[in-house]
Design a protein that fits this description.
Elements lengths: L19 E2 L1 H15 L7 H20 L4 E2 L1 H35 L12
Parallel strand pairs: 1-2
Length: 118
């Protein structure tokens, strides 16, 4: 009969800090969500850009904290939402440009003279 050793949980050093949630990670998610929701109105570019800049800082801080700063899932979700908001804003601008070009193409060109004018 073979006995397996008892599973022991690794003990932490008493001076190690407790893992703490990153407040920037939640801010990235909130700004990304606002950027996504207002992306179709082109105003979502600003919060989405701020979310991407803040996500970079938060990810660097989390890496430097060596696992004691949590919230990487919130950063990932916020980045995805921010990029989606930027894509929505760009799509809105492309649709508006096409609509403007179609409107210009349907308008008569040149001066409009009365009938019978040479």
């Amino acid at each position: 009969m073979v006995t397996s050793p008892a599973a022991t949980t690794p003990t932490r050093h008493p001076l190690d800090p407790d893992p703490a949630p990153s407040s920037k990670a939640r801010a990235v998610f909130a700004l990304g969500l606002v950027g996504f929701l207002t992306g179709a109105f082109v105003g979502g570019v600003i919060p989405a850009t701020v979310a991407l800049l803040l996500a970079r800082q938060a990810a660097r801080q989390a890496y430097a904290a060596q696992g004691y700063l949590t919230g990487s899932a919130w950063i990932r979700r916020g980045r995805r939402l921010a990029w989606a908001g930027i894509v929505l804003a760009l799509a809105t601008l492309v649709v508006a440009a096409i609509a403007g070009l179609l409107h210009l193409a349907s308008a008569p060109s040149g001066p409009d003279f009365a009938p019978g004018t040479n």
